[in-house]
Amino acid sequence: MIGERDITKVQELVYEMKVEQVMTKDIISVSPHSLMIELRDLLREKRISGVPVVDEGRLVGLVSIEDFIKCLAEGEIDIPIKDRMSINIKTLYNNEPLVQAVEEFDRTGYGRFPVIDRESGELVGIITKGDIVRGLLKKIEIEYHAEEIHRYRASHFFEDIVADKTTLIFQYKVISKDFNRAGQTSSGLKKTLRRMGMPSKVIRRVAIATYEAEMNIVVFTDGGQITARITPQEIRIDIVDSGPGIPDIEKAMQPGFSTAPDWIRELGFGAGMGLPNIKKCSDQMNLDSTVGKGTHLEITFNLNEKMKLGSGNDS
Amino acid sequence: MVLGTIADKLGLEVKTSGGLTAEVTGAYVSDLLSDVIGNSEKGNIWITLQVHPNIIAVATLKELAGIILVNSRQPEEETLKKAEEEQIPLMTTELPTFQVAGRLYKLIGEC
Question: Which fold has domain A3-135?
Fold first, then answer.
């Protein structure tokens, strides 16, 4: 369980996080006109091995403990830092992804990079490998903590309820022709089920079936309601609308049959696959419709292990 | 092959942040949402010309690796917002569907 998932999480984070999120912002710097001898106390006091050289807010060089040792060996510690600092310095921008920093550390073997603000050109921080490790650990810890809290709250829900019969009911309203909000019911239900610790295979099937049903309401009807009833044994979803109704259910169930108008099809809906997809995903499906009155679709998903054969189409 | 490498090799413009380390399991080409829901598989790249927000819902449902929008079509603002929210990588290309699908097939073949 640990191995792969954690590695990919870290990989994901180095792409997502920016240099400025982990860098040290509290920069200790020296002036190019200070003497090398002054560097000794600074390095010792702050327990650092290198320091950026800054002149009027601008980064002009980098001086390290090695430079100091060299001066010491040559007996030249009374000369200004600007004569001994490295000038050709590799820098990183504050808003570069962390992966860039990791690659630079690998490529160059350097111990630290000054970080420059991309807009102002000013020195805003210093980044070391240690900063990256600390930054990543902190982020992982925060995310893990949040996930743990969520998981606990929800997945123990049924276990903590004391009753002879428990049913949780979630209700959603679906508005006709509102393509911007379309899909909110299924994604909301999906998130809710995930928080309740439902098996992800079932969640995927529920989400797909609900999405298709939701789209049917949006595209074809004057609006309707979706109700999910959840017991420890099953999830039952009722999709109810108030018209216009389906004239020929048998035909509507045929893959590819569609009554959608052209403008709906241009949006990619109305493929004639909605009801067949719903049937494929669910363990049980009941479709009841009266023209002029409305349609009631009832779909059920078993939550016990022995799921009906051919009940899932997911991979 | 991971999504980031594919985006790089096909010269796709990545419109969203993150998600580029996802392993791609194959691809599906269709502009009909229910067709994608019925026939795409987890980890697939989806190539389409649809740009409205519902493509993100479909990609989320099927846990797709990412979406490539063809013919220089740009995602609607709402689509981009939802893509970030749901962490679905959204990429664009000036290539038409046939071209981008062909190049992708050369890269990852029948996986």
Answer: CBS-domain (3.10.580)
